[in-house]
Specification:
The protein is built from 20 helices and 32 strands. Helix 7 (about 380-395) packs parallel to helix 20. The chain is globular.
Amino acid sequence: MAERYIDINESIYTKCGDHVSEILATVADRHVGNNPPHPMAYRAFCANGILKNHDYSYDFHFVNRFPEIQNGQIVYAWSQYWSDVETPLNFILHCYGPLILYANGQPIYKANIADELNPKRRTVVTIQMKKGWNHFVFQFTKTEAGCGGSLGPGSYKSNPVHFLAPSPERFGHEGWIYTAPQDHVWSELPGEGSTEGDHGIAWYPELAWSDAEQAKNPVARIFCELNEGYVLAWTKLRSFSAEPRQVELSGHAEGSLAIYVDGKLQASIDKAGAFHAVVKLAYGEHNLVIQCFGANGSAGFRLDSLSAGIELVEPYPVHGAKDEWLYLGPFGAEDVMPDVEASLFALVETQEGGTFWRLDQPNTWVRPFTENALFGKWNYPLGVTLYGMLQTGKLLGRDDLLQYVYKHIETCTRLYTYAGWDKAQYGASGVLNTLATLDSLDDCGSFGATMLLALQNQPLQGAERIADVIANYISNQQDRLPDGSLYRKPKHVDFPNATLWCDDLYMSVPYMCRCYQRTGEIRYLEDAANQFIQFKKKLYIPELQIMSHVYDFGIDKPTKIAWGRGNGWVIFSLSELLAVLPDDHAQRNELLEFFNELSEGYLRLQGENGLWHQVLTEPASYEETSCTSMFLYAFARGVRYGWLTETERYIAAIHKGWNGMARISIDKFGNVYGVCRGSGYSYSVGYYKDDLSWLLNDTHGIGIVLLAGIEVLQLERHLGSS
């Protein structure tokens, strides 16, 4: 028998017993408390610096940057990475010539002959991160073959890491800094506590304006000549006066200006020269926006010092900003002036295309980055988590949970158009990386299905556009077999063959069901029904009435291994389809029969503690929480909707399974144990049984636990009222 995760005295059962609603509230509140709704991190980024490739690797191509570099010369690149915990991280390295990679002062990797001769050679480098700042230094040497390399995350979909500028002069900037070609190897490398002046050389990209540019006003040096249209300069005025007071704004204009305070026009300056404007300010902060019109190449202004009791403050926190102003444009003369507050959270559209905010530093832009562990990210496990949170909020009447889910989703959706622009500008987007690099069902179907469910009750900025993109991807772009099955073409060296994964029924079918509800188009349900019929042909194990995890077309056989969560996805998704499939649908009876066959197979394999095992047919494998939750979810629905016969057996299994999880898998603080980490696939039982360990509070399981509890609670109410 598998070892218990927690002592019974530490379990949620000791606090809540069989009060399902209290257990749901505890699990949901724990998740919110550990993942508060912090906004994206906004950072300064110099577009003259090191850009990324599509796989989120930083591309150091120094022959292109320094065409006159000589063989034997050396370029150093330096950056830092923040880690909340001590942990190993995998990176992918390519070499364009000789290089040495140092981490925290220690040599980690030195290129060999094979690396130098084959820049496409992919090397996995594992680096132990210490808690806090970790400094990275590259030493690149120029040869006839080239100079440089690339460094990226081990998995850019699940962990698209970004580095931060390491010196105090650029604290808060994103990216790497680098030297001009050096003639000698340095005896001491930069690291924690170093500054850019320590070696007496200049670091790139340039941080300061030239003397000629510094002589201009900020608008002029950022946007160069502006012959027509306008740009915006935004800051905030803070008044310390307890009473409203008159405040004079004075300075010198290079062209005509319009001055707005809190969105209201306060003054119009029609010509260049000295200007004065008086505004009335109450206590607190007020948006100050100056619209600078271009004429004959001149635009912009300089603002005089403010009177006592008034100060400028940054309009929004931007790491790496050197002053209190943000700049946006250029806009065409006919472009409507955007709302400055809202424009930080979506791409700003102009007649000439998209744009975003800038800083008064050489070619330096404001970029949002996803730096929260979970909140504001878009991936398939979070789609499941938010699904559970959304349904919990509805069932328990918890508006706070609903608003948390809506805010998480909209944090993503309103940045969608920006993410595409950001990727085009800089090689890889700092936000919404999965949608910006959409090439699999994992990237869109799960989170998208939750988004569509949320849209049924709450408008979400940008969501409708994303909904159409995902629907088109699943229907018209995702790879399919001649029979219409959604399959995976080989895209990774670790999975060289085409494959069919039972997981993909969840990545596709619930989204199709929501599309049907959104549009009324039956074709989505036809597609969903066909997926189950075709997947059954390849993956079903009739003697056990359960499913194989994967069919590998290179080997041309199913794995014949009954991975718990993979099977959970199948019956979970089938219940989603049956819940919306019309009673007169031609394939409904066939799908109901399949649901009953699977239910019978899973029922036989329930463990003695009420949980199912990581490998369903291997009682020695650990008791796995996410598959247990999905079987309970499907069984409870099957009883409540009348899909199952002999309901007493299933009701008993539901009771045993839910109470087993409350005793074994959930502690009194709402932490969830025993959820299998994200998987690959194998023909070996040992891979699933021994290599795929479980994680605490893994997002593959939190939402599923909540959804199981919701169905258990609804079944209790249903049976109590019958």
